[in-house]
Design goal:
The chain has 500 residues and is of the alpha/beta class. Helices cover 46% and strands 11% of the residues. The structure holds D-mannonic acid.
Length: 500
């Protein structure tokens, strides 16, 4: 293919691309939108949109195309890339042995930048073809108070949405107005399917939405309570931030110009409760697992995979590692994480049907170590203020209650304090900290020299952890050692050997 010119990825060019890269075999123009998806990040494109793409290869499933929705100003980039590319993008699967498979995904047939066009987005959700509204709005997007678990009304966007139902800004405003429209038009509601890493993600979505609607429109609240299903689900596929090198790779290897391809690991998993308001796609044909109760699956995944990531990522970032696989190449980090899984998480997990826990943990180690994924620690540590209360604190709290081991989780919190305080790694290189509460975290961590517990006083993140004597004493020891002699290797070794 030497001397070939670059081909812009778009619908018109699919037939020329199809000679050298896998392309959708279905007629995209006749696909109907059965799913409206809010939050078209990398994960949605490597996971749900990939499943739907495979489904669409069977003409019987032509009702299950996706319309993506971007609610935030920051969604401008995805809106313009997808517009230019007619919703098409390349999915590059990176195997541990260096093998790569690239395919063009066609399931996103429409995209609405709701930040600019809220009415179009509401109409799309309220359209009779739409059967499901799915969400990847991140752990922080659910707008609950970590301490009380209640809906947080006290934000300017929520105040705005309560007053302006036809030009909402938040997911809650959009869902409410679209559901109202469906009810008024005599249509069945859509299912609301959360695909975020929150335990009981469906129930949490339901609780948050109902709190909002109750305030805006109590009669609609009753209808939603009765008619709308919110299945819980567990989703899994590691999807790093797309490196520029992948854009170049597609140019070189396939003469393809794709401004935002997605890179992911081969592993993919989706477990969903079979509880839908208005029909569902036959995803079981693709290995999606429909179950009556997703609780044990999500608990296992969030407590092992997601928090395992943070257990590597926070100390790893401080030590100066850039990626999760680099952490895994360091035997001390790898065994620290495994010990956290074995000693602090496994004793709390319920038996999961058909899953061998040891094999599951082994597979996580292999997935984290995949040298071709290069998942940045900055992505893993991003929004830790929303992630850790969901991924790590429940494990710590349960162990405190039952007298279990707490040293691994406690050290990660101490390391997070140091990380938030200093903003540089131990080689003095600036850390890329992405957290909407970055400033607040820094302010509290920054008092540590005077008050070793200052970071924990951020009760909206840590709840009443501060009141637990056993935890406080260990945490203080770690903080003191870290601040006196910042050396992650030394500390990990000491924790392993129980020298604290
Ligand atoms: C990661 C997840 O963001 C994180 O902290 O743990 O994005 C993780 O890669 C996915 O949940 C994998 O399914």
């Amino acid at each position: 293919m030497k001397l070939m010119e670059l081909i812009q990825l778009n619908q018109e060019n699919l037939s020329s691309l199809a000679t050298h890269i896998s392309c959708p075999n279905y007629e995209r123009s006749s696909i109907k939108t059965g799913v409206v998806h809010i939050g078209v990040g990398g994960f949605h494109r490597s996971h749900q949109a990939y499943y739907m793409h495979q489904l669409l290869e069977d003409p019987q499933n032509a009702n299950w195309g996706i319309c993506g929705i971007g609610l935030r100003e920051g969604d401008q980039k995805i809106a313009s890339v997808l517009k230019q590319q007619d919703g098409l993008y390349t999915l590059i699967t990176q195997h541990p042995d260096g093998k790569e498979t690239s395919e063009i995904i066609g399931s996103i047939t429409d995209f609405i930048f709701a930040y600019e066009s809220p009415v179009l987005a509401i109409d799309k959700m309220a359209h009779s073809d739409t059967k499901i509204v799915s969400l990847t709005i991140t752990e922080g997007g659910y707008n609950f108070d970590t301490n009380t678990g209640n809906f947080n009304f006290d934000t300017p966007d929520i105040e705005h949405d309560l007053q302006h139902p036809n030009t909402p800004k938040t997911v809650f405003g959009f869902l409410t107005t679209a559901l109202r429209k469906r009810r008024d038009n005599g249509l069945a509601p859509f299912t609301i399917l959360s695909c975020d890493n929150i335990q009981h993600n469906g129930e949490v979505t339901r609780k948050m939405l109902l709190s909002f609607v109750q305030e805006q429109d109590p009669s609609l609240c009753k209808w939603i309570e009765k008619e709308v299903c919110f299945p819980n689900s567990m989703v899994d596929r590691i999807t790093p931030v797309t490196p520029d090198a992948s854009i170049d790779f597609l140019k070189k290897e396939y003469h393809l110009k794709d401004d935002w391809p997605i890179v992911c690991e081969p592993f993919i998993q989706w477990v969903i409760e079979d509880d839908f308001s208005n029909g569902r796609p036959p995803l079981e044909k693709l290995g999606v697992h429909f179950v009556a109760d997703v609780t044990p699956y999500e608990k296992m995944k969030i407590r092992l995979l997601n928090s395992g990531h943070s257990v590597l990522g926070i100390p790893g970032a401080l030590h100066g590692y850039q990626t999760i696989n680099a952490c895994m190449e360091d035997p001390l980090f790898a065994s620290f994480m495994r010990a956290f899984m074995d000693k602090e998480v496994s004793p709390l997990l319920d038996k999961v049907d058909g899953i061998d826990l040891t094999a599951y943990k082994n597979s996580l180690e292999e997935r984290f170590a995949n040298p071709n994924i290069k998942d940045g620690v900055s992505r893993i540590c991003s929004e830790s203020s929303a992630k850790l209360p969901k991924f790590l604190l429940p494990t710590l709290l349960e162990n405190l209650q039952r007298g279990g081991s707490i040293k691994y989780a406690s050290f990660v919190l101490a390391a997070w304090c140091y990380y938030s305080d200093k903003g540089v790694d131990l080689n003095n290189s600036r850390l890329e900290i992405i957290d909407y509460r970055k400033e607040e975290l820094h302010q509290s961590a920054n008092q540590t020299q005077q008050d070793p517990l200052s970071f924990l006083r951020l009760t909206s993140v840590f709840g009443d952890l501060l009141e637990n004597k056993r935890f406080i004493s260990l945490y203080t020891t770690y903080i003191k050692t870290l601040y006196n002699e910042p050396n992650i290797h030394k500390q990990l070794t000491a924790i392993h050997q129980d020298n604290f």
